[in-house]
Design brief:
The complex is a heterotrimer of chains A (about 290), B (about 775) and C (about 160). Chain B has about 775 residues and is an alpha+beta fold. Chain B has 3 domains: about 15-130 and about 195-275, Aldehyde Oxidoreductase, domain 3, CATH 3.90.1170; about 290-455 and about 610-765, Aldehyde oxidase/xanthine dehydrogenase, molybdopterin binding domain (Aldehyde Oxidoreductase, domain 4, 2-Layer Sandwich); about 460-605, Aldehyde Oxidoreductase, domain 4 (2-Layer Sandwich), CATH 3.30.365. Chain B contains 19 helices and 27 strands. In chain B, the strands form 6 sheets. An 8-stranded mixed beta sheet of chain B has the order 3-5-1-12-9-10-11-20, sandwiched between helices. In chain C, strands 2-1-5-3-4 form a 5-stranded mixed beta sheet, sandwiched between helices. In chain C, a hairpin with a 2-residue loop joins strand 3 and strand 4 (about 55-60). With about 160 residues, chain C is of the alpha+beta class. Chain C contains 5 helices and 5 strands. Classes of the chains: A alpha+beta (about 290), B alpha+beta (about 775), C alpha+beta (about 160). Chains B and C meet through helix 1 and helix 17 of B and helix 2, helix 3 and helix 5 of C.
Chain lengths: ~290, ~775, ~160
């Protein structure tokens, strides 16, 4: 039994925002796979909850007239992975969230919760960074949008204003169309684990498939928050694909990241992973973008 | 014959339908919840506990602290009691302790109406400590001036002994010996049975009942009595189905405190269930043991002079104490015999970490890692095939342990090795994988072991069995031996069917033990039950048969020795002609107006023998050097466990042991911070293998017939966990030339080792 | 903090009075005595409490009972046929010796129900992944995989035969 003082089940987005305005201390709960664990640990024991699971408008995946893909925050990982739009246009994201925990967790865990936790190890984060995801936040004063890179403000901290909720995750057509990519979750186990390092690479090649037109290289756990390696991306743009280029990307990425030593893994080990995984992820991304296997 | 057949488990139906009841599945009306307050320091004293705020909280029924418990120290290991004081287990803990000896020590307990109230009360209790330096290794604990964990043990040394065969100095002085040295270190791991320890206790009149998830109900009864200072007959222990034990429940854990708490609330029913986090740090672990080996070997591979120093990290409380390090030392004596001398110096040292206790194979996985890794190092130095080296020195049929007299009555070890070599294509692959380059490399490795069956003559081995003829001609079989998932009830059913002459479906085994009615047995440990309790069963069956045949003789007016029991029929011994159905015999025996006899039998067997089981593991691995990952491509365990009572269940036992061995080899480890606080006491951070981390597990058996055993059988339950880690370590050595001498072989450690050895970036990481 | 919820449990419409602080595992065990639902970690790591909610396997320890309102819940107790006959999955677990201590068994069987119910055929590696949300310390997963694989194949063949 959980030490919960009270649960309010919001019936609509407006209702949830209103409840949050009335009780700014209350904790939003979606899938529950993080919040309930924090309650049990004692970190959130005795809290008041606002449940948002029943808000249907916050669930589902769609494409608008401009080809922008909208992923609503309550969509579970397994629903993302198996959704036709994701499979066709954002396969790297579908694959990445299929690495979260295990099947039962993926059946309840939501992408909104994954993002709003603000943790660097979130399996969805590096790929959303790579796809230049834009978040829609809704609060008492209406809606605003924010690039995901600006949403993450520090370990466990995100740019949600008072009484604001994440209401949409948007990926524009220009950010996925023609790209191929790959995500590598490096963990000690192949399931039920958190990433020691997560590396997501997506790229677009020229018509003859021998030159990188655009590369997006993003990491989780390579710093306090998920991050892109812009210098490495810049170094790759317009370059002929070669093993030397992959090495160049890896070394540039290494100079941009800032992993820490924790009991889970040392900084040195994580740097070794950054070097190795950036090459492996890019290599696979190139193949998925139509290039040759190096 | 039922023995040797792969019959389905007798408890499988209940377990796949959810009908099987475990301790938490009983509802006794009001059940209060107990939770334990654990210390937040690793070493020191509780100076003061303020419970006043906690007591005011709604739902709190009772709070007791370390200042309120009886001043009685008691032992906890699941050993048979010894009537000689010198051989009794170490009594070094109280129900709750003022002297804090590990992070998470038990210092107070709350009884409340529900778990939320209990948790809130725990939070509201204020504790003042006097804190000492945490002792996080045997070296720190033995250092000059280190605080004593237990006043009675100077230098924090629980026990030290030396095992000596021959004169080492003399043997070592032989000309032409090559000396190989090595340091090996194993880590702390935990059993990780999926059901956490749980019990509940209540009183009726002046007797207390404890229902518990335990491997050792009769020992729990004794220890509850000792800890509470109450007569043992006043205690009743019931053991329902249990969700795994692996040695952690061969220990009296929280049953005494649970009983005490019930007594503190007037005998009301109190349930005490540990969380997973508590299970990791407050129950038992596998000892981390360090080994230093020096071996003088002739150029032809014959071992001559062997010296080993073993230091075992006991943690805060003695539990099984020195017995585990001593068992580890014995493996050096048993598996190989030197043509000269062996000297093993063994110490068990208290530290301020989780208390180590029994865990599947009792010290031998640690010894095997050190010994079998060292053997490959020696072979490498000699330029000899590691298998040739082993065969030259390993235990042979007829070997007698000079210390205990345990003899090798049967050995399939050589054939186990030969089958493993053939399976893995040893010769080809050893050659093929030499001198590889590149980031991905492959290797094959192997290791062997020997393992005793039961604890004779170190401890008493005794067991009882009861058979009762039912009115329909079926039998009720009652064993003191316990089913803990290994399949004991099924193999006892098979043994009983064959020993009496019944169809297996006519044997109804009583799975639950209840110390008020269950015959005595010390329980499930030491891979002893099929051997020791099997002997009791066989003896009981002899008496039971005789009584049935006597009654048949009365009914049929034929001499009893002219008849036999087969397939639940009385038959003519010579012709096999069916003379009388067991149902008819039973009905008459119950309701005869002339001669009503309730046919039962019960016997105790005091087992005074032991025997060696053997086996080998062969593994082929692929090493991803830049990522520090080992992928097991192929693995096989081959066992000589004597005659298999149930081959399919035997194979399943081996699967489980191999999986535990893989976790031991590759990832499992309980970690501590500098203050002695555990870092990863949960299933997310403790890397228990998932299905995606486990390769296909291959198993083979060499079935010897052991003449000392009741059915030709030998130890099986524990051995599969032994040889896996050294086989993988040796495969890693073969693949990369890098000898990693500590467990686990986890990625960061491997990347560091590869870097050090120049396999990565010319020896330097970019930092 | 009692609340009445309505859900369908193992095919039966059920009205349950819950404490809103309860997990679904608590509710199924304590209120309905469906004790096949086991608790091994209480944080969604071991999978012993797995049940199906509207056909999807979830860890009922980290799912509030309150959320079950209006849902269809299936536990192992709901698998047997009207005359007590075992489901093919249960039968496969028995015959493949996939059961040892039995504590993880009901949870894995429920994941198998979801897997088999998809009507698809899976490779052994795919099955490994589909049951990777369950920890088992007894079996090394070997016989569990054998049992699930067998049940998957049996169901698939049955469906193939059913098509014209």
């Amino acid at each position: 039994m959980y030490d919960i003082e009270k649960i309010y089940d919001a019936v609509s987005l407006d209702d949830a925002i209103r409840a949050r305005v009335e009780d700014p201390e209350a904790v939003i709960i979606a899938g529950g796979s993080d919040v309930l664990i924090k309650i049990r640990e004692g970190k959130l024991a005795g809290c008041r909850l606002i449940g948002i699971r029943a808000i249907k408008e916050l669930e589902g995946i769609s494409m608008d007239g401009d080809g922008c893909i909208h992923i609503r925050p309550l969509t579970t990982f397994s629903h993302i992975t198996f959704h036709p739009l994701i499979r066709e246009h954002l396969p790297v994201l579908g694959y990445a969230v299929d690495q979260v925990g295990g099947p039962q967790i993926r059946n309840i865990g939501t992408i909104g919760g994954n993002v709003c936790n603000g943790v660097t190890s979130a399996d969805s984060a590096s790929t959303l960074f790579a796809y230049n995801a834009v978040l829609e936040l809704t609060g008492p004063d209406g809606k605003r949008t924010l690039p995901i890179a600006e949403f993450y403000t520090g370990p466990g901290h995100v740019g949600l204003g008072p009484a604001e909720l994440l209401t949409d995750i948007m990926i524009a057509k220009k950010d996925y169309d023609g790209f191929g990519g790959h995500y590598i979750k490096y963990a000690q186990r192949n399931a039920m684990d958190i990433a020691t390092l997560g590396c997501s690479a997506i790229c677009r090649l020229n018509a003859s498939k021998n030159t990188i037109e655009d590369l997006r290289l993003a990491f989780g756990v390579a710093g306090p928050i998920p991050m892109r390696c812009h210098k490495a991306e810049e170094a790759a743009r317009g370059q002929l694909i070669s093993p030397q280029l992959l090495e160049q990307i890896a070394l540039t990425a290494e100079s941009e990241v800032n992993p820490r030593t924790s009991w889970r893994a040392s900084r040195e080990f994580r740097l070794q992973l950054v070097r190795e995984l950036s090459q492996r992820a890019c290599k696979q991304a190139i193949i998925h973008a139509g290039g040759a296997d190096l | 014959m039922a023995i040797g057949k792969s019959m389905n488990r007798v408890d499988a139906y209940e377990k796949v339908t959810g009908q099987a009841q475990y301790t938490d599945d009983f509802f006794e009306g009001e059940m209060l919840t107990a939770k334990v307050l654990h210390s937040t320091i690793a070493n020191g004293w509780v100076k003061k506990i303020d419970t006043s705020e906690a007591e005011k909280l709604p739902g709190v029924v009772k709070i007791v602290t370390c200042f309120d418990v009886p001043d009685i120290q008691f032992p906890t290991p699941g050993h048979p009691w010894s009537t000689e004081e010198a051989h009794q287990d170490v009594s070094d803990r109280k129900l709750l302790n003022q002297r804090v000896r590990l992070y998470g020590d038990d210092i107070a307990a709350v009884v409340a109406l529900d778990s939320v109230a209990a948790s809130r009360a725990l939070k509201a209790i204020r504790v003042e400590y006097e804190e000492y330096l945490p002792l996080l290794s045997p070296e720190e604990a033995m250092a000059e001036g280190a605080p004593l964990m237990h006043e009675e043990y100077p230098g924090n040394i629980l026990k030290h002994h030396t095992l000596i065969e021959g004169d080492y100095e003399k043997a070592a002085s032989e000309d032409g010996l090559l000396f190989v040295e090595g340091d090996f270190q194993t880590q702390i791991v935990q059993h990780c049975h999926i059901e956490p320890p749980i019990s509940y206790a209540y009183m009726k009149k002046d007797r207390i009942t404890v229902v518990s998830s335990t491997q050792i109900p009769h020992i729990v009864r004794r220890v509850v009595g000792q800890a509470l200072g109450i007569p043992w007959g006043h205690i009743r222990v019931i053991k329902p189905y249990i969700g795994g034990g692996f040695g952690n429940k061969q220990e009296v854990l929280y049953e005494p405190l649970n009983a005490f708490l019930s007594m503190q609330v007037g005998g009301r029913c109190v349930k005490l269930e540990l969380t997973r986090e508590e299970t990791f740090i407050c129950t038992r672990t596998r000892h981390a043991i360090s080994f230093h080996e020096t071996t003088g070997v002739r150029p032809d591979g014959r071992l001559v002079a062997r010296r080993v120093k073993i230091v075992s990290n006991q943690g805060g409380y003695a539990s099984h104490g020195h017995a585990i390090a001593a068992n580890a030392a014995n493996e050096f004596r048993h598996l190989y015999q030197a043509d000269g001398a062996l000297e093993v110096d063994v110490s068990t040292v208290y530290t301020s970490m989780a208390s180590a206790g029994a865990m599947r194979a009792y010290g031998i996985p640690q010894a095997a890692f050190a010994l079998e890794s060292h053997m490959d190092d020696i072979a490498l130095r000699l330029g000899m095939d590691p298998i040739e080296l082993r065969k030259k020195n390993m235990m042979k049929l007829g070997y007698v342990d000079p210390g205990t007299g345990i003899a090798c009555y049967s050995s399939g070890l050589e054939e186990c090795i030969d089958r493993g070599m053939a399976y893995i294509h040893w010769a080809e692959k050893r050659k093929q994988y030499q001198n590889q380059t590149g980031p991905i490399r492959r290797g094959v490795g192997m290791s062997i072991f020997s393992y005793k069956t039961g604890v004779y003559p170190i401890s008493l081995e005794t067991a009882s069995c009861r058979m009762v003829l039912n009115q329909d001609g079926t039998m009720q079989l009652q064993m003191g031996a316990t089913e803990i998932g290994q399949g004991a009830d099924t193999v006892f059913t098979q043994m009983a069917a064959d020993s009496v002459g019944f169809l297996p479906e006519n044997v109804h085994i009583v799975s639950f033990q209840d110390t008020d009615v269950t015959p005595f047995d010390t329980g499930a440990y030491a891979s002893r039950q099929t051997y020791v309790s099997g002997m009791a069963l066989k003896k009981t069956a002899g008496i039971f048969r005789e009584r049935i045949l006597d009654y048949a003789s009365y009914m049929l007016q034929k001499p009893a020795d002219s008849m036999d029991i087969r397939d639940s029929w009385i038959v003519c011994r010579e012709t096999g002609e069916q003379l009388l159905g067991m149902d008819a015999l039973a009905m008459e025996s119950f309701y005869s107006l002339d001669n009503s006899v309730h046919i039962t039998a019960e016997a105790t067997n005091h087992c005074k023998s032991n025997t060696f089981a053997f086996g080998a593991c062969f593994a082929e691995i692929e090493v991803d050097i830049p990522l520090g990952k080992i992928k097991v491509l192929d693995i096989i365990n081959i066992h000589d466990s004597g005659v298999l009572i149930n081959p399919k269940l035997a194979e399943a036992q081996v699967h489980g042991g191999m999986s535990m061995g893989l976790g031991y080899a590759l990832g499992e480890q309980l970690l501590y911070d500098k203050k002695g606080k555990p870092l990863n006491n949960n299933f997310l951070d403790y890397k228990l293998q998932t299905s995606l981390d486990t390769p296909e597990l291959h198993v083979d058996f060499v079935q010897t017939v052991d003449p000392s055993a009741p059915f030709g059988n030998k130890a099986l339950g524990e051995p599969p966990a032994i040889p896996v880690a050294p086989a993988i370590r040796n495969a890693l050595l073969h693949a990369t030339g890098v000898a990693v001498n500590s467990l686990p072989l986890n990625p960061q450690k491997l990347v560091e080792a590869f870097t050090e050895n120049g396999l990565l970036n010319g020896g330097a990481l970019h930092v | 903090m009692t609340k009445i919820i309505h859900c369908t449990v193992n095919g039966q419409e059920t009205e349950v009075a819950i404490d809103i602080r309860e997990s679904l595992a608590d509710m199924l065990r304590q209120r309905l005595h469906l004790t096949s639902v086991k608790k091994g970690c209480e944080v969604g790591e071991c999978g012993a409490c797995t049940v199906l909610v509207d056909g999807e396997a979830i860890d009922s320890c980290i799912y509030l009972a309150d959320w079950a309102d209006g849902k269809h819940i299936l536990t192992v107790e709901g698998l047997r046929g009207p005359n007590g006959e075992l489901s093919p999955i249960q039968q496969a677990f028995i015959e493949e010796a996939a059961v040892q201590c039995g504590f993880c068994t009901p949870g894995i069987i429920m994941s198998a129900v979801e897997i088999v119910g998809s009507g698809k055929q899976y490779t052994r590696d795919e099955i490994r992944k589909l049951i990777s949300g369950h920890l088992c310390r007894c079996t090394g997963y070997q016989n569990i995989l054998n049992a699930v694989e067998r049940a998957v194949n049996e169901a698939y063949q049955f469906l193939q035969q059913g098509e014209p």
